Fold:
Amino acid sequence: MVLNDGEIRAAIESGHIIINPLNAADIQPASVDVHLSDKILVFRNSRRPYIDVRQDVSDLTEMVEVLDDPPFILHPGEFVLGSTVEDIGLPDDLVARLEGKSSLGRIGLLIHSTAGYVDPGWRGRLTLELSNVNNLPITLYSGMPIGQISFTRLSAPAQHPYGSARLGSKYQGQTEPTPSRAYRDFQAGR
Structure:
């Protein structure tokens, strides 16, 4: 069951869901608006001829700060990583779904490729996979509404929530855009 605005508000007030910071106006009928942070992780293509998923790719990225003047320009076909301003925390009995804002989708801005699902037990800022599928550049501003997160109750609490020691959760507690850690899946013992 997807939580409605009253249930979301009650879960936040009780500490069951963590969204920090939170403006009450961001609570929608069945979701909460989230905002773009002031950091963007940009890919630089000059270091390697391709991405090998078995290797750490952090040397292929560079963190840049998003300002209001000038804004960050996301060019057609470009892919960068951003993150939410909000720190999100989920209990073991809820999952969340991150989706883009309709108004931004209508101009060709996608906020995730595949990472729209947030596991029970998650804690941290969500990394956004930002793509421009338009043929014109799109401006991005720090603090702009970028997406919305909805919450669904599980039939029972997860036995091993995200962040559990046995899972090897790669992104728990992240505070800024984080490059892929897929290479850890190829390390011994996985």
Q: What stands out?
A: The radius of gyration is 17 Å. The longest helix spans residues 5-14. The longest strand covers residues 79-89.
